[in-house]
Amino acid sequence: SPPGRFADYFVICGLDTETGLEPDELSGENFEQTPLRRTFKSKVLARYPENVEWNPFDQDAVGMLCMPKGLAFKTQADSREPQFHSFIITREDGSRTFGFSLTFFEEVTSKQICSAMQTLYHMHNAEYDILHTPPTNDKDSCSSTGDCNGTSVSKLQRFNSYDISRDTLYVSKCICLITPMSFMKACKKVLEQLHQAVTSPQPPPLPLESYIYNILYEVPLPPAGRSLKFSGVYGPIVCQRPSTNELPLFDFPVKEVFELLGVENVVQLFTCALLEFQILLYSQ
Q: Would the pLDDT of 237 be above 80?
């Protein structure tokens, strides 16, 4: 039987520099987009431990759910704030595994990847020029101010562009915890503190591996009806498990539902649930 650990896996997903830039087929055709707006295939780079008996690792599912939009590239001109999300993997027998992911951006140090992105931009600009250059007999229709189609094309090319000699390239990366219970707030704090330790100029008191080992092997699941307090990288982390006579664990802020959907939609959705209507949630 499962030993009742707080977390089963620590996973890292991101860019595999050996395979390079592969288009993300799950996102559909996006070649008309500028290369910085396209999505590329992400991969599971590492996981710890390799496997646990009571929770076999599903690499395809975890990789897709950790980074559902694939790899994203940005430059120093773009916003690069970390983003957190959660997911659930439901198996054929109805058992569930919970995942919590923190996606952030780090600088691309591989010269091959930077060169490949530059090449994609050269190809994109060349194709764009061919498709949008007006016929030679339309030159007279340009205004005296020079606001011709060619000028607008050059402006579009400079928008969201990448120049290897001028820009710094960043790529998305994800750290994730796979857990048997949905302790969302605690997992979010663990991942945020780990990310802070990586990006902080002052290193943490202990090596990062020791904190990850602690989460995976030394922090137990709290007993039903009890709270658990354990040490993170920069401070204590607390989680609470309901007792058997309480409502099931729901560690998500209900406020976000109202912010995303609005009060009227939430009331309508709740009404449909009570009336047992079929409900479809559609999201990007």
A: yes
pTM: 0.81
Q: Which residues of 43-82 are buried (b: 16+ CB within 10 A; e: fewer)?
A: bbeebeeeeeeebebeeeebbbbbbbebbbbbbeeeeeeb
Q: What is the CATH number of the domain that holds 182?
A: 3.30.450
> Residues 206-224: pLDDT tens digits?
899 999 999 999 999 999 8
**Stretch (H or E) spanning 72:** none
Domain count, the chain: 1
Residue 248 lies inside a defined structural domain of this protein? no
Residue 54: give the domain boundaries.
Answer: 9-111+164-221
